[in-house]
Amino acid sequence: MGPLGLLLCADIMSQTRNRLLPLLQGVGTLTRQAHPDWIYFLPILHFCACLMSTLRYFVPGLQYLIVIWEFVMHADFPVSLVAYALTPKYAPLAAIWVVAAGTLWWYVLSRGAEVVLVKLKHRRKPVSD
Fold first, then answer.
1. Using CB atoms within 10 A as the burial measure, which of 15, 64, 95, 115 is most buried?
2. DSSP letters for 78-124
3. Could you tell me if 19 and 69 lie in one domain?
4. Distance from C-alpha of 110 to C-alpha of 64, rounded to nearest angstrom
């Protein structure tokens, strides 16, 4: 390939780059995080507390972890009402309910807090003319 071929190739690459540049700039908005990381903290904390409290079934020396389960049951108040109703006959189902629905409950609460904070943030922004 001679010098003319190299110039032609460089020109084609430049044109392709100029056409793709607006598309690539739009990709930045697609990869922007939709939600802040803190909204996942409480659901993950709840799930980990549930997992930690189940260790008492597998390791006999960890029976004191029932305290964690009692705390989770009190912290999940609306969700735990169903679990309290299910416990006498269906204890495993009640535990699964607390883990699954309780984690979802904390996620919904965190998302609600996010919505409130976003509204407060927009309310505090001064209107510029």
1. 95
2. HHHHHHHHHTTT-HHHHHHHHHHHHHHHHHHHHHHHHHHHHHHHHHH
3. no
4. 29
* Same domain for 60 and 42: yes
Domain span holding position 58:
37-124
Instruction: Say how far apart CA 20 and CA 26 lie, in whole Å.
Output: 10
Of residues 71 and 126, which shows the higher confidence score?
71
Whether residue 74 is found in the same domain as residue 90: yes
Model pLDDT, residue 105:
93
Asked if residues 98 and 79 have their Cβ atoms less than 8 Å apart, the reply is: yes
Separation CA 61–CA 90 (nearest Å): 25
Q: Is residue 96 in a domain?
A: yes
Locate tokens 């004191």: which residue?
64
DSSP SS3 for 34: coil
Cβ pair 106, 42 in contact under 8 A: yes
pLDDT tens readout for residues 69-98? 888 888 888 888 988 888 889 888 888 888
- Check whether residue 53 and residue 18 sit in a common domain: no
Per-residue pLDDT band at 100 (split at 50, 70, 90): very high
